[in-house]
Prior knowledge:
The protein is mainly beta. It is built from no helices and six strands. It starts with 6 loop residues before the first strand and ends in a 30-residue tail after the last strand.
Amino acid sequence: MPNFATAVICGHLGRDAEFKAVGERTVISFTLATSRKVKDTESTTWWHVSYWTKTDKFAAYLKKGTPVLVSGEPFTREFDKKDGTKGVSLEIDAKDVKLLGGKQEGEAQPAAPSRPAKPAAVEEDSPPF
Protein backbone atom coordinates (compact mmCIF):
# COMPACT_ATOMS: atom_id res chain seq x y z
CA MET A 1 0.00 0.00 0.00
CA PRO A 2 1.49 3.38 -0.97
CA ASN A 3 2.11 5.98 1.71
CA PHE A 4 1.86 9.70 1.10
CA ALA A 5 0.72 12.92 2.71
CA THR A 6 -0.48 16.17 1.21
CA ALA A 7 -1.34 19.49 2.80
CA VAL A 8 -2.96 22.71 1.67
CA ILE A 9 -2.23 25.79 3.78
CA CYS A 10 -3.16 29.42 3.42
CA GLY A 11 -1.19 32.09 5.25
CA HIS A 12 1.06 35.13 5.07
CA LEU A 13 4.80 35.23 4.36
CA GLY A 14 6.85 35.93 7.47
CA ARG A 15 9.68 37.52 5.47
CA ASP A 16 10.66 38.13 1.85
CA ALA A 17 11.22 34.90 -0.07
CA GLU A 18 14.74 33.78 -0.91
CA PHE A 19 15.57 32.65 -4.44
CA LYS A 20 18.49 30.37 -5.29
CA ALA A 21 19.41 29.16 -8.77
CA VAL A 22 20.35 25.47 -8.86
CA GLY A 23 21.26 24.47 -12.39
CA GLU A 24 18.30 25.10 -14.68
CA ARG A 25 15.89 25.42 -11.75
CA THR A 26 15.20 27.88 -8.96
CA VAL A 27 14.32 26.99 -5.38
CA ILE A 28 12.13 29.54 -3.67
CA SER A 29 12.24 29.36 0.14
CA PHE A 30 9.99 31.23 2.55
CA THR A 31 8.24 30.97 5.89
CA LEU A 32 4.46 30.98 6.07
CA ALA A 33 2.38 31.80 9.14
CA THR A 34 -1.00 30.17 9.68
CA SER A 35 -3.22 31.15 12.62
CA ARG A 36 -5.85 29.34 14.62
CA LYS A 37 -8.23 30.99 17.03
CA VAL A 38 -9.99 29.04 19.78
CA LYS A 39 -12.22 31.15 21.99
CA ASP A 40 -10.05 34.13 22.98
CA THR A 41 -6.70 32.48 22.29
CA GLU A 42 -4.94 32.71 18.93
CA SER A 43 -1.92 30.61 18.07
CA THR A 44 0.40 30.88 15.06
CA THR A 45 2.08 27.95 13.34
CA TRP A 46 5.16 28.64 11.23
CA TRP A 47 5.87 26.53 8.14
CA HIS A 48 9.10 26.46 6.12
CA VAL A 49 8.24 26.17 2.41
CA SER A 50 10.51 25.12 -0.48
CA TYR A 51 9.21 25.42 -4.03
CA TRP A 52 11.27 24.16 -6.98
CA THR A 53 10.43 25.85 -10.27
CA LYS A 54 11.92 26.66 -13.67
CA THR A 55 11.06 30.34 -13.49
CA ASP A 56 11.50 33.27 -11.12
CA LYS A 57 8.16 34.89 -11.99
CA PHE A 58 7.36 35.15 -8.26
CA ALA A 59 10.36 37.37 -7.50
CA ALA A 60 8.43 40.64 -7.49
CA TYR A 61 5.52 39.33 -5.44
CA LEU A 62 6.70 37.08 -2.59
CA LYS A 63 7.31 39.78 0.01
CA LYS A 64 6.71 39.81 3.76
CA GLY A 65 2.98 39.79 4.51
CA THR A 66 1.89 38.47 1.09
CA PRO A 67 -1.05 36.04 1.38
CA VAL A 68 -0.46 32.74 -0.45
CA LEU A 69 -1.99 29.29 -0.81
CA VAL A 70 0.50 26.41 -0.81
CA SER A 71 -0.10 22.74 -1.51
CA GLY A 72 2.49 20.02 -1.25
CA GLU A 73 4.04 17.28 0.83
CA PRO A 74 4.37 18.09 4.56
CA PHE A 75 7.17 16.70 6.72
CA THR A 76 9.10 17.51 9.87
CA ARG A 77 12.80 18.24 10.20
CA GLU A 78 14.72 17.95 13.46
CA PHE A 79 17.41 20.54 14.21
CA ASP A 80 19.68 21.67 17.04
CA LYS A 81 18.66 24.92 18.74
CA LYS A 82 21.18 27.52 19.89
CA ASP A 83 20.68 26.40 23.49
CA GLY A 84 21.69 22.82 22.57
CA THR A 85 18.19 21.31 22.73
CA LYS A 86 16.45 19.63 19.81
CA GLY A 87 13.74 21.41 17.85
CA VAL A 88 11.30 20.32 15.17
CA SER A 89 10.44 22.37 12.10
CA LEU A 90 7.26 21.97 10.02
CA GLU A 91 8.17 21.91 6.34
CA ILE A 92 6.34 21.69 3.03
CA ASP A 93 7.84 20.58 -0.26
CA ALA A 94 5.48 22.73 -2.33
CA LYS A 95 4.04 21.43 -5.57
CA ASP A 96 1.88 24.52 -6.17
CA VAL A 97 1.97 28.11 -4.91
CA LYS A 98 -0.86 30.57 -5.60
CA LEU A 99 -0.81 34.28 -4.80
CA LEU A 100 -3.97 35.46 -3.04
CA GLY A 101 -5.58 38.85 -2.87
CA GLY A 102 -4.94 41.78 -5.11
CA LYS A 103 -3.25 45.12 -5.04
CA GLN A 104 -4.34 47.12 -2.01
CA GLU A 105 -5.44 50.74 -2.40
CA GLY A 106 -2.41 53.01 -2.38
CA GLU A 107 -0.02 50.10 -2.86
CA ALA A 108 2.66 50.50 -5.51
CA GLN A 109 3.12 48.02 -8.32
CA PRO A 110 5.79 45.44 -7.49
CA ALA A 111 9.24 45.93 -8.97
CA ALA A 112 10.21 43.90 -12.01
CA PRO A 113 12.03 40.62 -11.30
CA SER A 114 15.79 40.99 -10.93
CA ARG A 115 16.48 38.51 -13.74
CA PRO A 116 14.81 38.35 -17.15
CA ALA A 117 12.02 35.81 -17.46
CA LYS A 118 12.79 32.42 -19.00
CA PRO A 119 11.61 31.72 -22.57
CA ALA A 120 7.91 30.90 -23.08
CA ALA A 121 8.82 27.25 -23.68
CA VAL A 122 9.39 26.74 -19.95
CA GLU A 123 6.97 24.16 -18.58
CA GLU A 124 4.94 25.01 -15.48
CA ASP A 125 2.09 23.11 -13.87
CA SER A 126 0.02 26.26 -13.44
CA PRO A 127 0.56 30.02 -13.29
CA PRO A 128 0.84 31.69 -9.87
CA PHE A 129 -2.21 33.90 -10.42
